[in-house]
Amino acid sequence: MIVVMDEGATESQVQAVIDRLVEREFTVHRSTGVVHTLLGGVGPEDEVDPAEFLVMDGVKECRRIASPYKLASRHFRPGGTVVKAGAVEIGGERVVVMAGPCSVESRDQILRAAEQVARAGATVIRGGAFKPRSSPYSFQGLGEAGLVLLREAADAHGLVTVSEVMDSTQIPLLSRYADILQVGARNMQNFNLLRELGKLRQPVLLKRGIAATVEELLLSAEYILSGGNYDVILCERGIRTFESSTRNTMDLSAIPVVKKLSHLPIVADPSHGTGRRDHVGAMARAAVAAGADGLLIEVHPDPDRALSDGAQSLRPEQFEELMQQLRIIAPAVGRSV
Amino acid sequence: MIVVMDEGATESQVQAVIDRLVEREFTVHRSTGVVHTLLGGVGPEDEVDPAEFLVMDGVKECRRIASPYKLASRHFRPGGTVVKAGAVEIGGERVVVMAGPCSVESRDQILRAAEQVARAGATVIRGGAFKPRSSPYSFQGLGEAGLVLLREAADAHGLVTVSEVMDSTQIPLLSRYADILQVGARNMQNFNLLRELGKLRQPVLLKRGIAATVEELLLSAEYILSGGNYDVILCERGIRTFESSTRNTMDLSAIPVVKKLSHLPIVADPSHGTGRRDHVGAMARAAVAAGADGLLIEVHPDPDRALSDGAQSLRPEQFEELMQQLRIIAPAVGRSV
Amino acid sequence: MIVVMDEGATESQVQAVIDRLVEREFTVHRSTGVVHTLLGGVGPEDEVDPAEFLVMDGVKECRRIASPYKLASRHFRPGGTVVKAGAVEIGGERVVVMAGPCSVESRDQILRAAEQVARAGATVIRGGAFKPRSSPYSFQGLGEAGLVLLREAADAHGLVTVSEVMDSTQIPLLSRYADILQVGARNMQNFNLLRELGKLRQPVLLKRGIAATVEELLLSAEYILSGGNYDVILCERGIRTFESSTRNTMDLSAIPVVKKLSHLPIVADPSHGTGRRDHVGAMARAAVAAGADGLLIEVHPDPDRALSDGAQSLRPEQFEELMQQLRIIAPAVGRSV
Amino acid sequence: MIVVMDEGATESQVQAVIDRLVEREFTVHRSTGVVHTLLGGVGPEDEVDPAEFLVMDGVKECRRIASPYKLASRHFRPGGTVVKAGAVEIGGERVVVMAGPCSVESRDQILRAAEQVARAGATVIRGGAFKPRSSPYSFQGLGEAGLVLLREAADAHGLVTVSEVMDSTQIPLLSRYADILQVGARNMQNFNLLRELGKLRQPVLLKRGIAATVEELLLSAEYILSGGNYDVILCERGIRTFESSTRNTMDLSAIPVVKKLSHLPIVADPSHGTGRRDHVGAMARAAVAAGADGLLIEVHPDPDRALSDGAQSLRPEQFEELMQQLRIIAPAVGRSV
């Protein structure tokens, strides 16, 4: 803990802070400057809220020294983590492309989608069976029936599956059909759900909340890791800003930032990041160029007939063209697609 | 649905949009301007995503006409809703003050808190038993034991209780002890939870997510209302912005905005809104002056010893002083405290 | 300067940082913790960019200790500053209300406005002669002719004037007619303009930029103060966030924050803060309740015919009613209107 | 203008809006739906503020149909604009790399920088002589002496120059030495400056403000274009968001968005966009992959000794390596570097 005392702080105010730090079992190092006194406290930072010191008289600033996450930190595994889902490795040399429709809608739709994305080079198929929708009046997904179809389509084309879990009660069901369980942006701080996923031994794809900092994303990963499940894949999918020409603003700098702070792989979702089919390609290419370990892309056999997110779904031929471009870009960062 | 065609849109592009609107069962009104053609579609807006039209060739803009929420709209109850919780009315003439500690920590703590806030004029006591914490290593609440203590303290002083529910599985437990069930900001879009709360016949206090627009807040309320539970109290508790001198930025203009758009009562939480005890008073006064129906304020008998959020909790004497100030302000907006 | 070394920092990395600090003429205090080493540097912080240390190998974090502003800091004048403009004192016991139209449009308009706002209790009249407009095709103001009319109207009713200066070349002209020179939000970091205003001996009203932190606002004030002009009035007028139901989001917590950090008075502009007449009253009341030293409000004799910002201008009778409400609220914070 | 009437709007409220539209010289098309009435107004949108209608009784929403910018719109030049600065073409097949130090500091520094960036493949050299600094106590640039040195260095290596103009009074000076005049992010809405630059016949590089939408950026370009200067290059350099792990958040989706809305070329500045040398490479690669017409990158012969922005400046060898990577990526989007 670092406490910076205010310019006009009195000696008794400094002493009160030292006393409180000692009471909280910190060892205190004091640096008395001409203007400011600086207190460095070494101790149980996790258990103490810096704001507690911040509101004491004479305190200008108080901050933690240590990262609030431990297991998600790169120090924990300097070499990086490769998550294995079936035959697919996320975080290795190859950039993994996960593609498919927003929702599983019918047997025909998901079988066609699987065939199309597999042919173009994707190794993971996505498809939602439970959909979190802002409006209670929107299509909410096929439920278990959708998962059965997703599994069938994946198996027919040798693909790995990823699908969203909305609630801790759905974990057993999802585990049966999905190789990778996805936590949506709105659930990034659903701590009960995260804790339950920590008990699994199956990969989890954790999406960044639209207002979550990178640090908060890593703290949410920590909930899962601290339960013993180390197979967490992070996902940048756009944050909320004042700009409204795209649905969200993709924060692609989060990719190198996460790579520096954490050992966990990170993928990018340009479909939700932009909300518009015509900008998905540019952001997908940019994510790979920025060093993403993979992509999560919505592709639909017939986007104009999609029951959800049709506007941000690529047509199969657009997806194929994009894959060609990615094959050119990946070598620039020492990867392949 | 309003579709604005692009400056250079061809007649066949216009026709394609009209055809799609008709296929989606909209009646179309066309206005052909010198530069832009405008299509007004009357039909089942809830089931169609405007982005679907937005990405069609020649389309400049597409927007819904109707509000996506119905039951939460002021048109549904022009006179406004008064939510009753025990003897307390939220949304009536009196500004309701809900106060108490962040977490229930011990019998002594919560009994003292109840006595102090009741004496100062609060009619509802708050106190968390299940705490959503960013870090898995922080204090997570006393659970049911905390609820028992909260109930005892409330009953001893004739207070109504409000406490947070984190998960749909906790609803039966919370319902037994809490008069008002609180949904935290991080759960504002936990749709499974909202749907289950819609089946209750007990008031729900729904906090605005830190990145949620007012429209999204009302849509989340709609999830509860559409289940038949009309007793929803909204709560402004600060949004996330670039400013870091306060933990969040209270959006007090949300109060008059909600009053105009919805019939539901809205309260303000200046403790989470600022994160700092020294700014809570200013924001509490401002919220009442802006027309809030109530306040949710953290007050702790001994904030320096609080297990959570001590830095933003008022001391009992600060709370009393604040209540005096609120009594001066409320008449300016035709209310009392 | 505080430098926190990374968990895995080597001794030679620590030494490199110490060497660089010494080279930059800092005295270094070292605290070696179990996990992190902490370096406190006392020296010429203003001349060194913390990012310089941040990108060194083994560094986790680097921050300034001292505030980057000196003269704007409350330590410089703990008692607070009262700015005098004619007979009006901003920052004293009385909450100062500055009101009038967005732009001066005609002699009749500004004379009527002056009469109306003076009667209701305003002591300063506002009115733009040079208008910064997002579009080059919008009304750009009457220029000097507008200033002449503003002066005449003010003098007829014993009012003080405030008007916007857009460029350093306009300072001589504005100085002649305006008692207080206003710097608009878009110019908050027009440093050449600020520097020139520092040479004046006339009050300056400095609006916060829509994306400026409180610290940046105080740094911009520092530009003016460092030239010897101490009569600076700050103004909160809304920041840009993701919420779009109001034009901007008023950050009313900036009022108590500024009061704590600085000795300068701060006023609030609810007209630009909300952009909608129907929400101006709520935010004006809230600002006074939060401790603002004054208000800047757009009032137009006939808003439906205004050439700019009509939608956010109060009608004279609305302004009168608001003034009555403010007279009730001000005593709650020990002030009068 | 589109006006959507409220659900409960009365016929007389609808009529009042129609009357006002007619008075403002709009032709009105009315669509009466089951729930909402929709009014489409064709007329002089530039002169009317939609908010004027928005605050009328019974109005739910009001928006412009037409883009507020005309000359900056892609419709004005569907084929796109290629800006010529000396022998360099921005907006053509080749991705243009502009590189060099933040500030010109000395003859030796700028000559070495020019030699290094030219050798690596840059065709434009950047270097500031007038520096907008948040603090009045920071290094403010060498002024004209810096421009003389920049010109000398550029000429020695056949480079084109770009340098920042902070104020309209500096235009004549900058025009003499800089081939491209740069407008900084803080000045994006310094309308007097923009208007004066519109009178020049020299390329202008206009940086996006940190809180500016793409629409506002294009409106600022419109100020320059409407004066007759069509040689405007836009620049994405990061926007302000809640995320603090990078100085700003680069909005790379602005690149495809601008490409769709406007004919003007757009470059990206990953140095200011990230503020950290270690993330510049990733964002530079991403920008090219997203379709940027060029890059603006800070490169310093010895960043550890830079007087400004050293932390975000690449070392010469890092820049060379980056250029190699960009040569691999550009063909993926049909370009070369």
Write the layout of secondary structure elements.
The structure is a homotetramer of 337-residue chains.
Chain A: E1 2-5, H1 11-23, E2 27-32, E3 37-42, H2 50-54, E4 59-63, E5 83-85, E6 88-90, E7 96-100, H3 107-120, E8 124-126, H4 144-156, E9 160-164, H5 171-177, E10 180-183, H6 191-198, E11 204-207, H7 214-225, E12 232-236, H8 254-261, E13 266-268, H9 270-274, H10 277-289, E14 294-298, H11 316-329
Parallel strand pairs in A: 7-8, 7-14, 8-9, 9-10, 10-11, 11-12, 12-13, 13-14
Antiparallel strand pairs in A: 1-3, 1-4, 2-3, 5-6
Helix pairs in contact in A: 3-4, 3-11, 6-7, 10-11
Question: Which strand order spans the largest sheet of chain A, edge to edge or round the barrel?
Answer: 7-8-9-10-11-12-13-14
Question: Could you describe the largest sheet of chain A, including whether it forms a barrel?
Answer: 8 strands, parallel, barrel
Radius of gyration of chain A: 23 Å
Helix-strand makeup class of chain A: alpha/beta
The most extensive interface, with participating residues per chain, is:
A-B, 49 and 50 residues
